[in-house]
Amino acid sequence: MKKTKDTFPDMLEELPKHSKQSLRLWLRMLTCTNFVEKRIRNLLKEEFNITLPQFDVLSALERSPKGLTMGQLSTMLMVSNGNVTGVINRLAEEGFIVRNPLKDDRRTFVAKLTPDGRKRFRKMAKTHEKWIDDMYTNLNDGEIQELMDSLYIMKSSLKHYDERSNG
Q: What is each CA distance from 91 to 20, 51, 99, in whole angstroms?
Protein backbone atom coordinates (compact mmCIF):
# COMPACT_ATOMS: atom_id res chain seq x y z
CA MET A 1 0.00 0.00 0.00
CA LYS A 2 1.52 3.29 -1.09
CA LYS A 3 1.45 5.90 1.67
CA THR A 4 0.71 9.54 1.01
CA LYS A 5 0.84 12.24 3.63
CA ASP A 6 -2.76 11.47 4.67
CA THR A 7 -2.87 7.68 4.18
CA PHE A 8 -2.26 5.33 7.10
CA PRO A 9 -2.81 1.61 7.70
CA ASP A 10 -6.42 0.42 7.83
CA MET A 11 -6.17 -0.31 11.56
CA LEU A 12 -6.17 3.43 12.24
CA GLU A 13 -9.56 3.76 10.58
CA GLU A 14 -11.11 1.59 13.31
CA LEU A 15 -10.03 3.94 16.11
CA PRO A 16 -11.96 6.94 17.45
CA LYS A 17 -11.04 10.20 15.70
CA HIS A 18 -8.92 11.61 18.56
CA SER A 19 -6.99 8.33 18.82
CA LYS A 20 -6.28 8.37 15.09
CA GLN A 21 -5.10 11.97 15.28
CA SER A 22 -2.90 11.19 18.29
CA LEU A 23 -1.29 8.25 16.48
CA ARG A 24 -0.80 10.26 13.31
CA LEU A 25 0.82 13.05 15.33
CA TRP A 26 3.13 10.60 17.09
CA LEU A 27 4.11 8.96 13.79
CA ARG A 28 4.73 12.34 12.14
CA MET A 29 6.91 13.50 15.05
CA LEU A 30 8.78 10.19 15.09
CA THR A 31 9.42 10.41 11.34
CA CYS A 32 10.76 13.95 11.63
CA THR A 33 12.89 13.14 14.68
CA ASN A 34 14.35 10.03 13.06
CA PHE A 35 15.14 11.93 9.87
CA VAL A 36 16.99 14.73 11.68
CA GLU A 37 18.78 12.37 14.07
CA LYS A 38 19.99 10.08 11.28
CA ARG A 39 21.23 13.02 9.24
CA ILE A 40 23.02 14.59 12.22
CA ARG A 41 24.62 11.26 13.17
CA ASN A 42 25.97 10.88 9.63
CA LEU A 43 27.20 14.47 9.41
CA LEU A 44 28.97 14.29 12.78
CA LYS A 45 30.72 11.10 11.71
CA GLU A 46 31.69 12.45 8.27
CA GLU A 47 32.77 15.93 9.36
CA PHE A 48 34.25 15.33 12.83
CA ASN A 49 34.58 11.54 13.22
CA ILE A 50 32.45 11.69 16.36
CA THR A 51 29.26 9.95 17.43
CA LEU A 52 26.04 11.65 18.49
CA PRO A 53 26.39 10.33 22.08
CA GLN A 54 29.91 11.81 22.21
CA PHE A 55 28.56 15.14 20.94
CA ASP A 56 25.82 15.04 23.58
CA VAL A 57 28.36 14.46 26.38
CA LEU A 58 30.56 17.27 25.10
CA SER A 59 27.53 19.55 24.96
CA ALA A 60 26.60 18.74 28.56
CA LEU A 61 30.18 19.38 29.69
CA GLU A 62 30.28 22.67 27.77
CA ARG A 63 27.30 23.85 29.82
CA SER A 64 29.00 22.74 33.07
CA PRO A 65 32.50 24.28 33.15
CA LYS A 66 33.29 22.76 36.58
CA GLY A 67 32.64 19.30 35.17
CA LEU A 68 30.13 16.55 35.87
CA THR A 69 30.24 13.14 37.51
CA MET A 70 29.27 10.05 35.55
CA GLY A 71 26.02 9.93 37.53
CA GLN A 72 25.19 13.54 36.71
CA LEU A 73 25.91 12.94 33.03
CA SER A 74 23.81 9.78 32.91
CA THR A 75 20.90 11.62 34.55
CA MET A 76 21.20 14.60 32.18
CA LEU A 77 21.43 12.40 29.11
CA MET A 78 18.95 9.79 30.34
CA VAL A 79 21.32 6.86 29.76
CA SER A 80 23.03 4.31 32.01
CA ASN A 81 26.29 4.98 33.83
CA GLY A 82 27.86 2.20 31.76
CA ASN A 83 26.99 3.95 28.50
CA VAL A 84 28.39 7.25 29.79
CA THR A 85 31.60 5.61 30.99
CA GLY A 86 32.31 4.15 27.54
CA VAL A 87 31.72 7.48 25.84
CA ILE A 88 33.85 9.30 28.43
CA ASN A 89 36.70 6.83 27.93
CA ARG A 90 36.72 7.45 24.17
CA LEU A 91 36.57 11.23 24.62
CA ALA A 92 39.46 11.10 27.09
CA GLU A 93 41.53 9.06 24.61
CA GLU A 94 40.86 11.74 21.97
CA GLY A 95 41.96 14.54 24.33
CA PHE A 96 38.53 16.18 24.59
CA ILE A 97 38.17 15.66 28.33
CA VAL A 98 40.02 14.87 31.54
CA ARG A 99 38.72 12.77 34.42
CA ASN A 100 39.63 13.67 37.97
CA PRO A 101 38.58 11.86 41.15
CA LEU A 102 36.46 13.78 43.65
CA LYS A 103 38.42 14.86 46.72
CA ASP A 104 35.73 13.47 49.07
CA ASP A 105 35.22 10.19 47.19
CA ARG A 106 38.13 8.85 45.15
CA ARG A 107 35.80 6.28 43.50
CA THR A 108 33.78 9.06 41.82
CA PHE A 109 35.24 10.87 38.83
CA VAL A 110 34.42 14.29 37.43
CA ALA A 111 34.70 14.71 33.66
CA LYS A 112 35.69 18.13 32.39
CA LEU A 113 36.48 19.54 28.96
CA THR A 114 40.14 20.27 28.23
CA PRO A 115 40.87 23.71 26.73
CA ASP A 116 41.51 22.02 23.37
CA GLY A 117 38.34 19.91 23.78
CA ARG A 118 36.30 23.05 24.45
CA LYS A 119 37.75 24.74 21.36
CA ARG A 120 37.07 21.69 19.17
CA PHE A 121 33.55 21.26 20.57
CA ARG A 122 32.65 24.90 19.93
CA LYS A 123 33.61 24.48 16.29
CA MET A 124 31.42 21.36 16.11
CA ALA A 125 28.53 23.10 17.86
CA LYS A 126 28.64 26.02 15.42
CA THR A 127 28.58 23.61 12.48
CA HIS A 128 25.81 21.54 14.13
CA GLU A 129 23.70 24.69 14.55
CA LYS A 130 24.13 25.49 10.85
CA TRP A 131 23.07 21.96 9.88
CA ILE A 132 19.90 22.24 11.95
CA ASP A 133 19.17 25.70 10.59
CA ASP A 134 19.65 24.42 7.02
CA MET A 135 17.24 21.52 7.66
CA TYR A 136 14.58 23.95 8.86
CA THR A 137 15.25 26.56 6.18
CA ASN A 138 11.75 26.23 4.67
CA LEU A 139 10.12 27.21 7.97
CA ASN A 140 9.75 30.89 8.70
CA ASP A 141 10.22 32.35 12.19
CA GLY A 142 6.47 32.40 12.84
CA GLU A 143 6.09 28.72 11.91
CA ILE A 144 9.01 27.78 14.12
CA GLN A 145 7.51 29.69 17.04
CA GLU A 146 4.12 28.07 16.45
CA LEU A 147 5.72 24.61 16.50
CA MET A 148 7.67 25.49 19.65
CA ASP A 149 4.47 26.68 21.36
CA SER A 150 2.61 23.52 20.34
CA LEU A 151 5.45 21.29 21.53
CA TYR A 152 5.49 23.14 24.86
CA ILE A 153 1.80 22.33 25.27
CA MET A 154 2.47 18.72 24.29
CA LYS A 155 5.33 18.44 26.80
CA SER A 156 3.04 19.75 29.54
CA SER A 157 0.42 17.20 28.54
CA LEU A 158 2.99 14.39 28.66
CA LYS A 159 4.22 15.50 32.09
CA HIS A 160 0.63 15.51 33.32
CA TYR A 161 0.13 12.01 31.90
CA ASP A 162 3.34 10.84 33.58
CA GLU A 163 2.29 12.27 36.92
CA ARG A 164 -1.11 10.54 36.68
CA SER A 165 0.47 7.24 35.61
CA ASN A 166 3.09 7.21 38.35
CA GLY A 167 0.63 8.32 41.02
A: 44, 10, 10
d(CA 88, CA 22): 38
Q: What is the mean pLDDT of residues 99-123?
A: 91
User: Please, which pLDDT band fits residue 15 given cuts at 50, 70 and 90?
Assistant: low
**pLDDT value at position 88?**
94
Q: Is the pLDDT of residue 2 over 70?
A: no
Residue 72 included in any domain = yes
- Give the number of domains in the chain: 1
Full residue range of the structural domain in which residue 131 is found: 49-135
Residue 88 in domain:
yes
Q: Is residue 158 part of a domain?
A: no
- Taking CA atoms, 157 is separated from 19, 69, 150, 162, in Å, by 15, 31, 11, 9
Longest distance between any two alpha carbons in the chain, whole Å: 62
φ, ψ dihedrals at 66, nearest 5°: -80, -5
pTM greater than 0.85: no
Q: What is the pLDDT of residue 161?
A: 85
The verdict on residue 108 lying in a domain is yes
- Angle ∠(63,41,100) on CA atoms, nearest 5: 40
